[in-house]
Amino acid sequence: MTSMQRSPATDSTPGAVPPGRRPLTFAWISVALIPVAFIAAMFVGDGLISLQGYEPGAEQFPPIGVTLLAAIPAVLVMIAPAVVAVGFGFRARNRGAATGIVPAVIGIVVIAYAIVANTLPRLLGA
User: Fold this and answer.
1) Looking at the chain, which terminus has fewer C-beta neighbours within 10 angstroms, N or C?
2) Does some domain include residue 13?
3) Residue 67, Cβ neighbours under 10 Å: how many?
């Protein structure tokens, strides 16, 4: 009198959603939000520089403390959807959607770019 239960991964009923489909969808939505986050990060960074009394885009960099107070929140805003894309991309891959690696790699590249592009100019003094 035991009933057999099918796991979602082996369910072959019509209309069944594969277990990796939902995280893959969320990963791609996160990738689509990366340009929006980039624009928001520019506003955050410039706004925080202005609130501290410095002109955004001036020839000389403001002091390091001012730069950090503006750059850290701006970078966090910029990489937030990329971090989410990495998490959901790897989750989708682990659940059987092999294409989940694509949004995960896109997220990793965006994170690396955001960090390098925001630290290298200050380190090189350019």
Assistant:
1) N
2) no
3) 18
Say if pTM beats, i.e. exceeds, 0.85: no
Residue of 94, 91, 90, 118 lying closest to 105 (CA atoms): 90
* Residue 25 to residue 55: CA distance in whole angstroms: 41
Establish if 8 belongs to a structural domain: no
Range of the domain at 100: 21-124
Instruction: Quote the CA–CA distance of 122 and 26 in Å, as a whole number.
Output: 34
Any idea what DSSP says for residue 59? Answer: S
In a domain, 60, yes or no: yes
User: Residue 108 has what pLDDT?
Assistant: 97
- Answer whether residue 66 shows pLDDT above 90: no
Q: What size, in residues, is the chain?
A: 126
Total domain count, the chain: 1
Alpha-carbon separation of residue 109 from 20, 25, 31, 46, 126 (angstroms): 22, 19, 11, 24, 23
Residue at 117 is within a domain: yes
- Which band of pLDDT confidence, cut at 50, 70 and 90, is reported for residue 104? very high
Residues with Cβ within 8 Å of residue 6, at least 6 apart in sequence: none
